[in-house]
């Protein structure tokens, strides 16, 4: 089969690799019909390279058609399924409590990590990912989300990651009708965070430096702001001087405006891999501009919810401010299956209230994935969300 493989820092290529096969009775094999590039894939492209191995198949947002089903998979051929990016068993202590991203059956204990993830480095099990023609799905008796055949892929595809990630971010923010919510970052997750906030009856303020991202969010009634020196004053003026009730940081570890941390991240990737891995595991730092700005902006007694991915072990945090302002922090890898019952009716609503059909800016063949990664990272050509078509 053809698959997108990691070859080095900022270097991915489409190669011919072995087809996947069933390894356990609860496995399934799917033919991938759509697979997306996620913002967190860019961390593998740039920052987390010491944890990657040449030839790793990447990608963790995909859906497709079952072509082979193990006897314990609860699936049959031609079933249409979305594959959550987390690999969870559904029956362990964590899964039974809705914490599927902490699944005790698939935890990557070697690195002290939670549940294994598709296509996401040694840190999460080095499981072959979904930017490929075919994908082996472990724990297929629980993991896959079965969907109908009548709606286009883009109505369902984002259930694999970014839509439940955004939903969890808003739920963790504790937003109620009439509350005010701010969103830092209007990439794909931030776009859905803003739309979900509006859907739940909040007043939403969103911040992003790119005009095309602000324009897309504004179509949904979101108040949008550029990264200016007085933007926090503007938002406070609109919230009776207090600041918003909650802020969702949808940016993560590679935020702009953190030059020292950016240098440290870059320098670490230039070290030999074993040394670099040790650095990340003991002294790694994130670019924290968006998180620190969220802490500054939120009202006293408010909540900061992290949807953007962080991976630093030695991140400096403004503990005085957090304590003095009585701020709650909530975060974590998304527990995808926990939120599907809430999201599926919205996905299948003919009105498409969350705008799942109004996010993708580029749909390209899998063969063009290397150029698409470069475009997505550099934010050129108005790129907000890329979907790859392995069948094109």
TrEMBL record:
Presence of keyword RNA-binding: no
Q: Which residues form the Alcohol dehydrogenase-like N-terminal domain?
A: 25-144
The Alcohol dehydrogenase-like C-terminal domain, residue ranges: 188-255
For this UniProt record, give its keywords in alphabetical order, as a comma-separated list: Metal-binding, Zinc
Cofactor(s) this protein cannot do without = Zn(2+)
State the Gene3D superfamilies in the record.
Answer: Medium-chain alcohol dehydrogenases, catalytic domain (3.90.180.10), NAD(P)-binding Rossmann-like Domain (3.40.50.720)
Q: Which Pfam families match?
A: ADH_N, ADH_zinc_N
Q: Does the keyword Zinc apply?
A: yes
Q: Which GO terms describe its molecular function?
A: metal ion binding
* Identification of the protein by name: Glutathione-dependent formaldehyde dehydrogenase
**Species of origin:** Leucobacter denitrificans
